[in-house]
């Protein structure tokens, strides 16, 4: 800055007073001008060459692919045969049954919830974009499982308003179980856009369609225990603060809770948010520790076990999938009707948030010991410091509210639940037919 100032100070304010011929300053200036012209010329030439290269090269793509766009591809939907399948899947087959649109139905929780609803005679229609955040063949296998029990999963994105509107045109859903989301805390550093796309934009789009539907459905949706973020008071209660998220994932779930409040307030949508605590079980998610620990222990690979500062224990309130499913069904069954219609609120509507956990946190090192016993293989443990990339040190749910209002009572301990998971894992990936990750 000071250098520039001194240079500017050297230029006289009245150029006419220059002595043109003798001044060495002028001489230098002319030389400088000609080199500037040369520089400009060559710059243009260079720029021109780059442009020619860009436009002539057939496959050149100067920008890196945005991974969040992968779920924006177009899907085939519509037509009489498609509508027939939608209707048949969503048909209620029991007295007092409900008809539920389950988003994220090819996901871990979505598959279990859809199957349970179908078993009791409710109408169920799935929706999923089958993105490749983790092995899509697992999602396809879950889809085949649901197909056999009569649940059709429409392939599409929750951001597709036309598709959602069409679904509500074909079926007057009484409920929406919204489980579609970009899950996982660490992946947010790699692909933040996918969290905004599914957890914020997608959620808003879904609520927009629900608010305009006539009748409006009641909505139960998955928030997360991660909203408790850096809280240290345990167990976590719904009344505790949730303004210190430790990951973008957590921040988008917290945003979802605020968005839910808005749509409840303005449009009279009945909304229930469920804060799940580390759900595990058969057909689980390959990006979760219990799943990839199993895979790596069996492969003889070392596994990283995190510990907090001063050898602090990292623990999770692991919750078995069947308990979570019971909580989801109870939330649907106790959800009151939305009060608006066609986008207009007629009166106050229900707005709830519940913890769905197990209330007994287990150190991650104990989880590994249980897996060692079940798999009959010793793990190669690699103890590492908990990185600051989204994970929190522990989670622990206070579930008294869900107990009182939903009759929620988890009944599967980690040992029993993991036994069921390992049995499924070994049969699913048996004989090298499929390779996990
Ligand atoms: N599993 C857990 O431990 C846990 C804990 C807390 C919260 N949750 C929440 O519960 C819900 C279900 O989790 P999960 O473990 O089954 O995850 P999952 O990834 O197995 O299931 C989510 C499904 O949603 C689909 N999806 C994602 N974005 C979509 C979009 N834009 N349009 C349509 N489909 C889309 C995915 O393809 C996937 O099949 C999620 O909202 C998740 O954030 C899960």
TrEMBL record:
Keywords, ordered alphabetically: Carbohydrate metabolism, Golgi apparatus, Isomerase, Membrane, NAD, Transmembrane, Transmembrane helix
Domain spans labelled NAD-dependent epimerase/dehydratase: 100-337
Q: Where does the protein end up?
A: Golgi apparatus, Golgi stack membrane
Membrane topology, as annotated, equals:
Multi-pass membrane protein
Domain of life per record: Eukaryota
- EC number(s) per UniProt? 5.1.3.6
Q: Which residues cross the membrane?
A: 36-55
The protein here is known as: UDP-glucuronate 4-epimerase
């Amino acid at each position: 800055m000071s250098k520039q100032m001194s240079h500017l100070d050297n230029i006289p304010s009245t150029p006419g007073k220059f002595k043109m011929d003798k001044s060495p300053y002028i001489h230098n200036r002319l030389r400088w001008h000609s080199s500037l012209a040369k520089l400009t010329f060559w710059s243009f030439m260079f720029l021109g060459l780059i442009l020619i290269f860009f436009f002539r090269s057939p496959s050149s793509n100067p920008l890196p692919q945005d991974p969040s766009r992968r779920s924006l591809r177009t899907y085939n939907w519509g037509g009489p045969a498609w509508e027939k399948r939608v209707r048949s899947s969503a048909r209620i087959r029991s007295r007092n049954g409900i008809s539920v649109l389950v988003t994220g139905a090819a996901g871990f929780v979505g598959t279990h919830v859809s199957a349970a609803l179908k078993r009791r005679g409710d109408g169920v229609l799935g929706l999923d974009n089958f993105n490749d955040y983790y092995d899509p063949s697992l999602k396809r296998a879950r889809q085949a499982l649901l197909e056999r029990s009569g649940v059709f999963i429409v392939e599409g994105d929750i951001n597709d308003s036309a598709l959602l509107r069409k679904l509500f045109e074909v079926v007057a859903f009484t409920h929406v179980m919204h489980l579609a989301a970009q899950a996982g805390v660490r992946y947010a550093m790699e692909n933040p856009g996918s969290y905004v796309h599914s957890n914020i934009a997608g959620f808003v789009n879904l609520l927009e369609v629900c608010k305009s539907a006539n009748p409006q459905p009641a909505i139960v949706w998955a928030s997360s225990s991660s909203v408790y973020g850096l809280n240290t008071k345990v167990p976590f209660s719904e009344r505790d603060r949730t303004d210190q998220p430790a990951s973008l994932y957590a921040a988008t779930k917290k945003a979802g809770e605020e968005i839910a409040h808005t749509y409840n307030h303005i449009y009279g949508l009945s909304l229930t948010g469920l804060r799940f605590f580390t759900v595990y079980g058969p057909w689980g998610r390959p990006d979760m520790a219990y799943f990839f620990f199993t895979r790596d222990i069996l492969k003889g690979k070392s596994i990283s076990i995190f510990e907090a500062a001063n050898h602090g224990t990292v623990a999770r309130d692991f919750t078995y999938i069947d308990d979570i499913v019971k909580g989801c069904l109870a939330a649907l069954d106790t959800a009151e009707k939305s009060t608006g219609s066609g986008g207009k609120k007629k009166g106050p509507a229900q707005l709830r948030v519940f913890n769905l956990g197990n209330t007994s946190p287990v150190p991650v090192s104990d989880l590994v010991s249980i897996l060692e016993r079940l798999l009959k293989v010793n793990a190669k443990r690699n103890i590492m410091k908990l990185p600051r990339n989204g994970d929190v040190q522990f989670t622990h749910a206070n579930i008294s509210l869900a107990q009182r209002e939903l009759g929620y009572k988890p009944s599967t301990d980690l040992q029993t639940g993991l036994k069921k998971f390992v049995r499924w894992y070994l049969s699913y990936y048996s004989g090298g037919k499929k390779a996990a990750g």
